[in-house]
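Give me the fold.
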Amino acid sequence: MLLRLSTVLVLVLLVACSQAPVREPTATRTGVDFGGQWSLDYALSDNLQASLNTLVRELQRQAERRAQAAGTDPRGPGASVLMGSGSDGASAIIGLAEMADLVSRSPLLNIVQNESGIRVRREDDFALDCDFHDGRPQAVETPLGREFCAWDGHQLVFVLTLPDGLGIRHRLTLGPDGQLLNIASTVSSDRVSQPFTLNRVYRRMDGDAQGFSCEQTLTRGTVCTTETD
C-alpha cells in the first residue's frame, strides 16, 4: 500500500508540473488577500507523529464502539472495516500520514493573487492554481483523477480526487489580521474510515525586513532564508 501511495503521488506531482488544465474559475472573495511571501511557523503547525497518534486513537475508539454495539471483540474482524487488517491496515494509516506530510511540507510559499486568480508556488513542490469567474466551479478531469478549486465562505479549497479511492484537499484560511495563513491538508482513502489532516501555519514575510534574505532564482522564483550573524 505504501508503494502504491508513493507511486500515485509521484505521478500526481509530475502531471501537476507538466500540465495546466483549463478550469472554470470561481468567484473571488472581497477582502481576502493571500498574496505575498510566507514562511512556515513550525511551533504553530501540527506535529506529524502527534497527529498520527490522534488518528490511531480515534480509529481504535470507533472500532470499540462498533464492537460494543455488535457484541464482538474490538480486536476481531469488525475492526478491519475501520483500520484494515494486520500490516495492511497499519500501512494504509501510515500511508495517509506520509502523503499528507509530503504534500504540505514546503517551508516557503510565494502566493500571487489578482483579479484573475491565485497561484500558490511552493518550494520544491507543485503549484496550486485557481482562476476566478462569476460562474460556478467546474471540475476538471485529468489522466490521474478529478480536480477543482472553489471558495467556501472566505476559505479557498483545492480538491484532487485520485484513483484507488484516494483524495487530497487543501483548505486555505487567512488569519484575522492577515499575518497568519493556515493550510489544512487532508488525505483520505477508502481503506481508512477517518481522513488524516495536517495543519501548516505560515507567517507573512516582509522581504525587506531585517532577518530575512531573499533572492530571485530561475527555477524556484523568490527564495527567502533567515539571516545568521
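Confidence is low (pLDDT under 50) at residues 1-22, 77-86.
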